[in-house]
Write a structure and sequence with these properties.
By secondary structure, the protein is of the alpha+beta class. The protein has two domains: 38 residues; 106 residues, 3-layer Sandwich (Rieske Iron-sulfur Protein). The protein is built from two helices and ten strands, in the order αβαβββββββββ. The strands form two sheets. It has a six-stranded antiparallel sheet with strand order 1-10-9-4-3-2. Strands 5-6-7-8 form a four-stranded antiparallel sheet, with no helix packed on it. It binds FE2/S2 (inorganic) cluster. The site of FE2/S2 (inorganic) cluster has 11 residues, from loops. FE2/S2 (inorganic) cluster binds next to loops.
């Protein structure tokens, strides 16, 4: 191998090493700066389980994922099912249901809503957004399926 050919080979190796190093560093930075667009799931309907769901029976409520948003599903003392946006209208804390007091409660600033989603105490400025709840009959002797959808 001549000196010129050796020099050309070394120059090529050096340049490709710098190129590989630059790509190794720049690619993750570029991916971080411009993450891929993930479209938000267009959710209008969620199956929330069965009417004998132990969480609903014992606690009287459960939090569902409605796309990226939490939704609270209630089972009242009167055995009625209701669903509302799961975040408080004050500062977006997740709410919970106190069945014995029949109150949807936000523990961040003691906000309270009734079982219609209306504000009854604390700082929340607006009622909770209501969702529609349907019970789908699964046959005789079977628990119904709970379906929550946008109003
Ligand atoms: S965030 Fe719920 S009362 Fe403040």
């Amino acid at each position: 191998m001549t000196d010129a050919a050796r020099r050309k080979l070394l120059t090529w190796l050096l340049n490709s090493s710098f190129g590989a190093l630059a790509a190794t560093v720049l690619y993750p930075v570029a991916r971080f700066v411009s993450p891929p667009e993930i479209p938000e799931a267009d959710t209008n309907l969620v199956e929330a389980g069965l009417s004998n769901d132990p969480e609903l029976v014992e606690k009287g409520f459960k939090i569902l994922r409605f796309g990226n948003d939490p939704v609270i599903l209630l089972r009242t003392e009167a055995d009625e099912y209701r669903a509302f946006a799961g975040t408080c209208t004050h500062l977006d804390c997740i709410v919970e249901f106190h069945r014995t007091e029949n109150v949807i409660w936000c523990n961040c600033h003691n906000g309270e809503y009734d079982t219609q989603g209306k504000v009854v105490g604390g700082p929340p400025p607006r009622p909770l957004q209501a969702f529609k709840v349907d019970l789908v009959d699964k046959g005789p002797g079977q628990p119904s399926a709970i379906v929550v959808s946008r109003v």
